[in-house]
Known about the structure:
The chain is of the alpha/beta class. The protein has helices spanning 28-38, 68-76, 95-103, 114-124, 138-147, 153-167, 182-197, 206-218, and strands spanning 2-3, 10-11, 17-21, 42-44, 48-49, 64-65, 80-86, 89-94, 107-110, 128-134, 175-178.
Amino acid sequence: MYGNGGGQMEFSRRGVMLVIASPSGAGKSSITRTLLAEQDNLTMSVSVTTRPMRDGEVDGKDYHFVSIEKFKAMRDAGELLEWARVHSNYYGTPVADVDQRIENGHDVVFDIDYQGTQQLYEKRREHLVSVFLLPPSIPELRARLKGRALDSDEVIARRLQNARTEMEHWAEYDYVLVNDDLAETTRKVTGILAAARIARTRQKDLSVFVKALQEQIDEL
Ligand code: 5GP
């Protein structure tokens, strides 16, 4: 039921579903990467997508790359916890793997858009914690997008327009952080995850434990 290894008692628990969202360039990837490296027991949800694989991406690691037919078959068979069409490609979260990890007490981080987050709220509210990151300013966001030196001015202009749309959904998230200091924002997200891990609703054996305490009083 619980461990008492070297100090604080720990109950077995359900995992946390952690959504981290932000406009492109506001720090989502860096923060997610640090969390995955530093946190035991935290893994990424690997989505299925119909978009073509980019250079450097690995099938099964970045995404499961599938055909449109396969995607629709999975969706229609109820194998996706959520799905959305983003920029004319389909994306979705395979349900079985995520549910199993959560039930076994493993935490899962999601890189999904607001449409997917809304569906997770409908279907898995009790497991979900969501964080939305904002850039400190638009000149700063532009500088970060330009700093990547990957994209043409036209692509950057399009990303800024997309950022505008994504920011419309800020109020649908549990936490909204302005990322003006990457290390500090990472610390805050780490704290959010730490608190979510010990939330009452995730502890599996609390009621049994409390009953046992009461019985000990009764037996005095
Ligand atoms: P990209 O094609 O650049 O990897 O991702 C494009 C967008 O799709 C990003 O905003 C990303 O968060 C979103 N996305 C990736 N996987 C999923 C998914 O499984 N579900 C949903 N709803 N969005 C996703």
